[in-house]
Design goal:
alpha+beta; FAD/NAD(P)-binding domain; six-stranded antiparallel beta barrel
Length: 408
Protein backbone atom coordinates (compact mmCIF):
# COMPACT_ATOMS: atom_id res chain seq x y z
CA UNK A 1 0.00 0.00 0.00
CA UNK A 2 1.24 3.48 -0.91
CA UNK A 3 1.12 6.55 1.29
CA UNK A 4 -0.37 8.48 -1.62
CA UNK A 5 -1.64 7.73 -5.12
CA UNK A 6 -1.66 10.65 -7.58
CA UNK A 7 -4.10 10.32 -10.48
CA UNK A 8 -2.95 12.30 -13.51
CA UNK A 9 0.50 13.51 -14.56
CA UNK A 10 -0.10 17.07 -15.69
CA UNK A 11 1.68 19.99 -14.02
CA UNK A 12 -0.18 19.60 -10.71
CA UNK A 13 0.22 15.81 -10.64
CA UNK A 14 3.95 15.95 -11.30
CA UNK A 15 4.46 18.61 -8.64
CA UNK A 16 2.34 16.86 -6.00
CA UNK A 17 4.15 13.55 -6.64
CA UNK A 18 7.60 15.08 -6.18
CA UNK A 19 6.53 17.11 -3.15
CA UNK A 20 5.11 14.07 -1.35
CA UNK A 21 8.08 11.87 -2.26
CA UNK A 22 10.56 14.48 -1.05
CA UNK A 23 9.15 14.27 2.48
CA UNK A 24 9.51 10.51 2.53
CA UNK A 25 6.06 9.37 1.38
CA UNK A 26 5.72 6.34 -0.88
CA UNK A 27 4.13 7.75 -4.04
CA UNK A 28 2.30 6.05 -6.90
CA UNK A 29 1.66 8.17 -10.01
CA UNK A 30 -1.03 6.77 -12.31
CA UNK A 31 -1.30 8.01 -15.90
CA UNK A 32 -3.62 6.65 -18.59
CA UNK A 33 -1.42 7.83 -21.48
CA UNK A 34 1.80 6.12 -22.64
CA UNK A 35 3.99 8.80 -21.01
CA UNK A 36 3.65 11.51 -18.37
CA UNK A 37 3.06 15.22 -18.85
CA UNK A 38 1.67 15.22 -22.38
CA UNK A 39 -0.57 18.25 -21.77
CA UNK A 40 2.31 20.12 -20.15
CA UNK A 41 4.43 19.24 -23.16
CA UNK A 42 1.82 20.74 -25.49
CA UNK A 43 1.25 23.94 -23.50
CA UNK A 44 2.14 27.22 -25.12
CA UNK A 45 2.53 25.56 -28.48
CA UNK A 46 5.35 23.46 -27.02
CA UNK A 47 7.20 26.49 -25.60
CA UNK A 48 5.64 26.06 -22.12
CA UNK A 49 4.90 29.42 -20.48
CA UNK A 50 5.56 28.20 -16.93
CA UNK A 51 4.49 31.24 -14.90
CA UNK A 52 4.80 35.03 -14.89
CA UNK A 53 6.48 37.74 -12.87
CA UNK A 54 3.39 39.23 -11.20
CA UNK A 55 3.49 39.67 -7.43
CA UNK A 56 1.19 37.30 -5.56
CA UNK A 57 -1.60 39.78 -4.81
CA UNK A 58 -1.78 40.94 -8.44
CA UNK A 59 -1.68 37.34 -9.62
CA UNK A 60 -4.60 36.38 -7.38
CA UNK A 61 -6.65 39.43 -8.37
CA UNK A 62 -6.37 38.46 -12.04
CA UNK A 63 -8.39 35.29 -11.43
CA UNK A 64 -11.52 37.18 -10.34
CA UNK A 65 -14.31 35.18 -8.71
CA UNK A 66 -13.11 32.57 -6.25
CA UNK A 67 -9.55 33.85 -6.35
CA UNK A 68 -9.22 34.15 -2.56
CA UNK A 69 -9.19 30.36 -2.48
CA UNK A 70 -5.70 30.46 -4.04
CA UNK A 71 -4.07 32.56 -1.35
CA UNK A 72 -2.79 29.74 0.89
CA UNK A 73 -1.32 27.76 -1.99
CA UNK A 74 0.44 30.80 -3.45
CA UNK A 75 1.63 31.99 -0.05
CA UNK A 76 3.29 28.62 0.42
CA UNK A 77 4.60 28.25 -3.14
CA UNK A 78 4.61 31.34 -5.36
CA UNK A 79 6.39 32.08 -8.64
CA UNK A 80 9.72 32.76 -6.88
CA UNK A 81 9.49 29.39 -5.14
CA UNK A 82 8.62 27.74 -8.45
CA UNK A 83 11.66 29.26 -10.17
CA UNK A 84 13.87 28.13 -7.29
CA UNK A 85 12.41 24.64 -7.64
CA UNK A 86 13.24 24.61 -11.35
CA UNK A 87 16.77 25.78 -10.56
CA UNK A 88 17.13 22.92 -8.07
CA UNK A 89 16.13 20.30 -10.63
CA UNK A 90 18.41 21.73 -13.30
CA UNK A 91 15.89 23.60 -15.47
CA UNK A 92 17.06 27.01 -16.65
CA UNK A 93 14.31 29.63 -17.11
CA UNK A 94 14.04 33.22 -18.28
CA UNK A 95 11.46 35.95 -18.93
CA UNK A 96 12.39 37.44 -22.33
CA UNK A 97 9.55 39.99 -22.25
CA UNK A 98 9.92 40.70 -18.53
CA UNK A 99 6.58 39.05 -17.79
CA UNK A 100 6.14 35.53 -19.14
CA UNK A 101 8.57 32.90 -17.86
CA UNK A 102 9.71 30.10 -20.18
CA UNK A 103 12.30 27.35 -20.07
CA UNK A 104 15.46 28.86 -21.50
CA UNK A 105 15.31 26.26 -24.26
CA UNK A 106 11.77 27.40 -25.18
CA UNK A 107 11.08 23.69 -25.49
CA UNK A 108 8.69 21.92 -23.13
CA UNK A 109 10.70 18.71 -23.51
CA UNK A 110 13.37 20.20 -21.26
CA UNK A 111 10.70 20.75 -18.58
CA UNK A 112 9.54 17.13 -18.76
CA UNK A 113 13.10 15.84 -18.77
CA UNK A 114 13.79 17.73 -15.54
CA UNK A 115 10.59 16.47 -13.90
CA UNK A 116 11.27 12.88 -14.95
CA UNK A 117 14.80 13.00 -13.58
CA UNK A 118 13.56 14.42 -10.27
CA UNK A 119 10.78 11.81 -9.97
CA UNK A 120 13.31 9.07 -10.54
CA UNK A 121 15.60 10.59 -7.91
CA UNK A 122 12.68 10.83 -5.46
CA UNK A 123 11.61 7.21 -6.17
CA UNK A 124 8.12 8.04 -7.45
CA UNK A 125 6.55 4.83 -8.76
CA UNK A 126 5.18 5.80 -12.19
CA UNK A 127 2.61 3.61 -13.91
CA UNK A 128 1.72 4.77 -17.44
CA UNK A 129 -0.98 3.13 -19.56
CA UNK A 130 -2.97 2.66 -16.35
CA UNK A 131 -6.44 4.19 -16.70
CA UNK A 132 -8.21 4.55 -13.36
CA UNK A 133 -11.78 3.25 -13.65
CA UNK A 134 -12.99 3.91 -10.11
CA UNK A 135 -11.80 5.02 -6.68
CA UNK A 136 -13.40 3.82 -3.45
CA UNK A 137 -12.60 4.10 0.24
CA UNK A 138 -12.95 1.39 2.87
CA UNK A 139 -11.97 2.13 6.44
CA UNK A 140 -8.63 4.00 6.26
CA UNK A 141 -7.46 3.32 2.71
CA UNK A 142 -8.50 3.91 -0.88
CA UNK A 143 -8.71 1.33 -3.63
CA UNK A 144 -7.97 2.50 -7.15
CA UNK A 145 -9.24 0.15 -9.82
CA UNK A 146 -7.40 0.37 -13.15
CA UNK A 147 -7.83 -1.58 -16.35
CA UNK A 148 -4.76 -3.61 -15.43
CA UNK A 149 -4.58 -4.03 -11.65
CA UNK A 150 -5.92 -2.51 -8.41
CA UNK A 151 -3.83 -0.34 -6.10
CA UNK A 152 -4.28 0.73 -2.49
CA UNK A 153 -3.25 4.02 -0.91
CA UNK A 154 -3.80 5.89 2.33
CA UNK A 155 -4.30 9.18 0.44
CA UNK A 156 -5.39 10.05 -3.09
CA UNK A 157 -4.62 13.24 -5.03
CA UNK A 158 -6.91 13.92 -8.00
CA UNK A 159 -4.81 15.80 -10.57
CA UNK A 160 -6.61 14.73 -13.72
CA UNK A 161 -7.08 18.16 -15.29
CA UNK A 162 -10.32 19.21 -16.95
CA UNK A 163 -11.82 18.27 -20.30
CA UNK A 164 -9.69 20.28 -22.71
CA UNK A 165 -7.04 18.63 -24.89
CA UNK A 166 -9.02 15.38 -24.95
CA UNK A 167 -6.52 13.73 -27.27
CA UNK A 168 -3.95 14.06 -24.47
CA UNK A 169 -6.05 12.13 -21.98
CA UNK A 170 -8.11 14.78 -20.18
CA UNK A 171 -11.68 13.57 -20.54
CA UNK A 172 -13.29 14.58 -17.26
CA UNK A 173 -12.44 11.51 -15.17
CA UNK A 174 -11.64 13.69 -12.17
CA UNK A 175 -15.16 15.04 -12.03
CA UNK A 176 -16.53 11.50 -12.06
CA UNK A 177 -14.28 10.51 -9.16
CA UNK A 178 -15.20 13.66 -7.21
CA UNK A 179 -18.92 13.01 -7.69
CA UNK A 180 -18.54 9.42 -6.47
CA UNK A 181 -17.38 10.82 -3.12
CA UNK A 182 -20.26 13.30 -2.87
CA UNK A 183 -18.61 16.38 -4.34
CA UNK A 184 -20.51 18.84 -6.53
CA UNK A 185 -19.21 20.01 -9.90
CA UNK A 186 -19.99 23.51 -11.17
CA UNK A 187 -21.15 23.83 -14.81
CA UNK A 188 -18.33 22.99 -17.21
CA UNK A 189 -17.51 25.03 -20.31
CA UNK A 190 -14.65 24.95 -22.83
CA UNK A 191 -12.35 27.94 -22.34
CA UNK A 192 -9.25 29.40 -23.96
CA UNK A 193 -10.14 28.49 -27.55
CA UNK A 194 -10.89 30.20 -30.90
CA UNK A 195 -14.41 31.48 -31.60
CA UNK A 196 -16.61 31.22 -34.69
CA UNK A 197 -18.42 34.33 -35.94
CA UNK A 198 -21.41 34.89 -38.19
CA UNK A 199 -19.84 37.58 -40.40
CA UNK A 200 -18.48 36.24 -43.67
CA UNK A 201 -16.08 39.13 -44.37
CA UNK A 202 -13.57 38.00 -41.74
CA UNK A 203 -12.25 35.27 -44.07
CA UNK A 204 -10.79 38.03 -46.26
CA UNK A 205 -8.56 39.24 -43.41
CA UNK A 206 -6.79 36.03 -42.35
CA UNK A 207 -3.31 37.17 -43.39
CA UNK A 208 -2.95 39.80 -40.68
CA UNK A 209 -2.33 39.84 -36.93
CA UNK A 210 -3.89 42.90 -35.30
CA UNK A 211 -2.13 44.13 -32.16
CA UNK A 212 -3.76 45.67 -29.09
CA UNK A 213 -7.34 44.85 -30.07
CA UNK A 214 -10.08 45.42 -27.48
CA UNK A 215 -13.04 43.01 -27.24
CA UNK A 216 -16.23 43.43 -25.24
CA UNK A 217 -19.58 41.70 -25.09
CA UNK A 218 -22.42 43.82 -26.50
CA UNK A 219 -25.09 42.75 -24.00
CA UNK A 220 -26.69 44.53 -21.02
CA UNK A 221 -24.49 44.52 -17.91
CA UNK A 222 -21.62 42.92 -19.85
CA UNK A 223 -19.96 45.84 -21.67
CA UNK A 224 -17.69 46.74 -18.75
CA UNK A 225 -15.92 43.40 -19.13
CA UNK A 226 -13.16 43.94 -21.71
CA UNK A 227 -10.09 42.06 -22.90
CA UNK A 228 -7.15 43.47 -24.82
CA UNK A 229 -4.45 41.79 -26.87
CA UNK A 230 -3.50 40.44 -30.28
CA UNK A 231 -6.19 39.07 -32.59
CA UNK A 232 -6.00 36.92 -35.72
CA UNK A 233 -8.86 36.24 -38.14
CA UNK A 234 -9.59 32.70 -39.31
CA UNK A 235 -11.73 31.38 -42.16
CA UNK A 236 -14.76 31.30 -39.87
CA UNK A 237 -13.89 33.43 -36.87
CA UNK A 238 -11.24 34.85 -34.58
CA UNK A 239 -8.33 33.55 -32.54
CA UNK A 240 -5.20 34.89 -30.86
CA UNK A 241 -4.29 35.61 -27.21
CA UNK A 242 -7.08 38.14 -26.65
CA UNK A 243 -9.66 35.70 -28.01
CA UNK A 244 -8.41 32.86 -25.81
CA UNK A 245 -8.88 35.04 -22.73
CA UNK A 246 -12.21 36.41 -23.97
CA UNK A 247 -13.65 32.96 -24.73
CA UNK A 248 -13.91 32.16 -21.02
CA UNK A 249 -16.69 34.73 -20.70
CA UNK A 250 -18.34 33.95 -24.03
CA UNK A 251 -18.78 30.16 -23.92
CA UNK A 252 -21.25 30.15 -20.98
CA UNK A 253 -23.32 32.81 -22.77
CA UNK A 254 -23.32 30.79 -26.00
CA UNK A 255 -24.71 27.86 -24.07
CA UNK A 256 -27.60 30.06 -22.98
CA UNK A 257 -28.23 32.34 -25.99
CA UNK A 258 -26.79 30.49 -29.04
CA UNK A 259 -25.45 33.81 -30.41
CA UNK A 260 -23.39 36.42 -28.57
CA UNK A 261 -22.91 39.93 -30.03
CA UNK A 262 -19.51 41.44 -29.42
CA UNK A 263 -17.75 44.70 -30.27
CA UNK A 264 -14.17 44.96 -31.50
CA UNK A 265 -11.88 47.98 -31.44
CA UNK A 266 -9.07 47.55 -33.97
CA UNK A 267 -7.62 51.04 -33.42
CA UNK A 268 -5.56 50.42 -30.26
CA UNK A 269 -8.30 51.82 -28.05
CA UNK A 270 -8.93 55.08 -29.93
CA UNK A 271 -12.45 56.52 -29.62
CA UNK A 272 -14.48 58.16 -32.39
CA UNK A 273 -13.13 61.66 -31.82
CA UNK A 274 -9.53 60.43 -31.76
CA UNK A 275 -10.08 58.44 -34.96
CA UNK A 276 -11.61 61.49 -36.66
CA UNK A 277 -8.63 63.66 -35.70
CA UNK A 278 -6.23 60.94 -36.83
CA UNK A 279 -7.85 60.74 -40.27
CA UNK A 280 -7.85 64.54 -40.65
CA UNK A 281 -4.16 64.70 -39.77
CA UNK A 282 -3.25 61.87 -42.12
CA UNK A 283 -5.25 63.48 -44.90
CA UNK A 284 -3.41 66.77 -44.41
CA UNK A 285 -0.09 64.95 -44.62
CA UNK A 286 -1.10 62.84 -47.62
CA UNK A 287 -3.99 64.58 -49.46
CA UNK A 288 -3.43 62.42 -52.54
CA UNK A 289 -4.10 59.16 -50.65
CA UNK A 290 -7.42 57.33 -50.88
CA UNK A 291 -9.34 56.32 -47.75
CA UNK A 292 -7.82 52.83 -47.55
CA UNK A 293 -4.31 54.23 -47.84
CA UNK A 294 -5.05 56.59 -44.96
CA UNK A 295 -6.55 53.81 -42.85
CA UNK A 296 -3.57 51.49 -43.32
CA UNK A 297 -1.64 53.84 -41.02
CA UNK A 298 -4.04 52.65 -38.34
CA UNK A 299 -5.26 49.15 -39.22
CA UNK A 300 -4.29 46.43 -41.74
CA UNK A 301 -5.29 47.06 -45.35
CA UNK A 302 -7.47 43.94 -45.49
CA UNK A 303 -9.67 45.22 -42.64
CA UNK A 304 -9.74 48.76 -44.10
CA UNK A 305 -11.14 47.42 -47.34
CA UNK A 306 -13.79 45.31 -45.61
CA UNK A 307 -14.99 48.10 -43.31
CA UNK A 308 -15.28 50.49 -46.26
CA UNK A 309 -17.30 47.85 -48.05
CA UNK A 310 -19.61 47.46 -45.03
CA UNK A 311 -20.31 51.18 -44.95
CA UNK A 312 -20.70 51.43 -48.73
CA UNK A 313 -17.67 53.62 -49.38
CA UNK A 314 -15.63 53.37 -52.57
CA UNK A 315 -12.22 52.48 -51.20
CA UNK A 316 -10.51 54.45 -53.97
CA UNK A 317 -12.18 57.69 -52.87
CA UNK A 318 -10.16 60.35 -51.11
CA UNK A 319 -11.22 61.24 -47.56
CA UNK A 320 -12.53 64.71 -48.45
CA UNK A 321 -14.66 63.31 -51.28
CA UNK A 322 -16.60 60.94 -49.00
CA UNK A 323 -20.08 62.01 -47.92
CA UNK A 324 -20.09 63.30 -44.32
CA UNK A 325 -22.64 60.75 -43.13
CA UNK A 326 -20.61 57.92 -44.63
CA UNK A 327 -17.49 59.24 -42.91
CA UNK A 328 -19.35 59.27 -39.59
CA UNK A 329 -20.53 55.69 -40.17
CA UNK A 330 -17.01 54.55 -40.97
CA UNK A 331 -15.55 56.26 -37.89
CA UNK A 332 -18.21 54.70 -35.70
CA UNK A 333 -17.45 51.29 -37.20
CA UNK A 334 -13.72 51.79 -36.69
CA UNK A 335 -14.27 52.57 -33.01
CA UNK A 336 -16.44 49.50 -32.42
CA UNK A 337 -16.89 46.86 -35.12
CA UNK A 338 -19.78 44.49 -34.39
CA UNK A 339 -19.31 40.73 -34.72
CA UNK A 340 -21.60 37.90 -33.70
CA UNK A 341 -20.09 34.84 -32.03
CA UNK A 342 -22.00 31.72 -33.04
CA UNK A 343 -19.87 28.86 -31.77
CA UNK A 344 -16.51 27.30 -31.00
CA UNK A 345 -14.62 24.03 -31.38
CA UNK A 346 -15.77 22.53 -28.06
CA UNK A 347 -13.56 20.74 -25.56
CA UNK A 348 -11.56 19.20 -28.40
CA UNK A 349 -10.12 22.67 -29.12
CA UNK A 350 -10.17 24.04 -25.56
CA UNK A 351 -6.91 24.52 -23.68
CA UNK A 352 -8.68 24.99 -20.35
CA UNK A 353 -11.95 24.02 -18.67
CA UNK A 354 -14.07 26.64 -16.96
CA UNK A 355 -15.72 25.13 -13.88
CA UNK A 356 -14.84 22.15 -11.73
CA UNK A 357 -15.01 20.75 -8.20
CA UNK A 358 -16.80 23.30 -6.02
CA UNK A 359 -14.28 25.33 -4.02
CA UNK A 360 -16.42 25.42 -0.88
CA UNK A 361 -15.98 21.66 -0.58
CA UNK A 362 -12.16 21.83 -0.51
CA UNK A 363 -9.97 23.13 2.33
CA UNK A 364 -7.84 25.90 0.77
CA UNK A 365 -5.15 25.42 3.44
CA UNK A 366 -4.47 21.83 2.38
CA UNK A 367 -6.42 21.11 -0.86
CA UNK A 368 -8.03 18.23 1.06
CA UNK A 369 -11.69 17.38 0.58
CA UNK A 370 -13.99 18.60 3.34
CA UNK A 371 -16.16 15.54 2.66
CA UNK A 372 -13.64 12.68 2.58
CA UNK A 373 -10.45 12.62 4.64
CA UNK A 374 -7.38 11.72 2.64
CA UNK A 375 -8.84 12.87 -0.70
CA UNK A 376 -7.11 15.86 -2.30
CA UNK A 377 -7.63 17.92 -5.45
CA UNK A 378 -5.25 20.18 -7.37
CA UNK A 379 -4.89 21.97 -10.68
CA UNK A 380 -7.54 22.42 -13.32
CA UNK A 381 -9.98 19.88 -11.86
CA UNK A 382 -11.10 22.49 -9.32
CA UNK A 383 -13.29 25.49 -10.19
CA UNK A 384 -10.54 27.97 -11.04
CA UNK A 385 -9.24 29.09 -14.43
CA UNK A 386 -7.01 31.96 -15.46
CA UNK A 387 -5.90 33.87 -18.53
CA UNK A 388 -3.06 33.22 -20.97
CA UNK A 389 0.35 34.08 -19.63
CA UNK A 390 1.41 31.35 -17.20
CA UNK A 391 -1.51 31.82 -14.81
CA UNK A 392 -2.98 28.33 -15.08
CA UNK A 393 0.36 26.53 -14.88
CA UNK A 394 1.41 28.52 -11.82
CA UNK A 395 -1.87 27.59 -10.14
CA UNK A 396 -1.33 23.95 -11.10
CA UNK A 397 2.17 23.93 -9.63
CA UNK A 398 1.16 25.82 -6.46
CA UNK A 399 -1.93 23.72 -5.73
CA UNK A 400 0.01 20.54 -6.57
CA UNK A 401 2.73 21.51 -4.13
CA UNK A 402 0.20 22.21 -1.38
CA UNK A 403 -1.69 18.96 -1.99
CA UNK A 404 1.60 17.04 -1.97
CA UNK A 405 2.38 18.32 1.51
CA UNK A 406 -0.40 15.96 2.75
CA UNK A 407 -1.51 17.73 5.91
CA UNK A 408 -3.23 14.63 7.30
Amino acid sequence: MYAVAVVGSGASGLMSSITAARVGKSVLLLEKMPSVGLKLKASGGGKCNLTNTLKTDEFIDSFGKGAKFMRDALKLFDSDDLLNFFKEIGLKTHAPDGFRVFPQSHNSKSVLDAFNAEMKSASVDIKCNHSVKSISKLENFFTLETDAVNFRAKNVIIATGGMGYKTLGTDGDGYKFAKSFGHNITPLYPAMLPLHVEQDWVKNCIADTIAKVTLKIDMPKMKSSQKRGDLIFTKNGIRGPVVLDFATEVTPLLDKYAKVPILVNFTKGMNEEEIREFLKTQNQKNPQHNIVELLTELIPKSISKELCKLVGIDRYNRYVKIDGRKRDELIKLLAWTPLTVTGHGGFEKAMVTKGGVRLKEIDPKTMQSKIVKGLYFCGEVVDLDGACGGYNLQWAFSSGFLAGCLKD
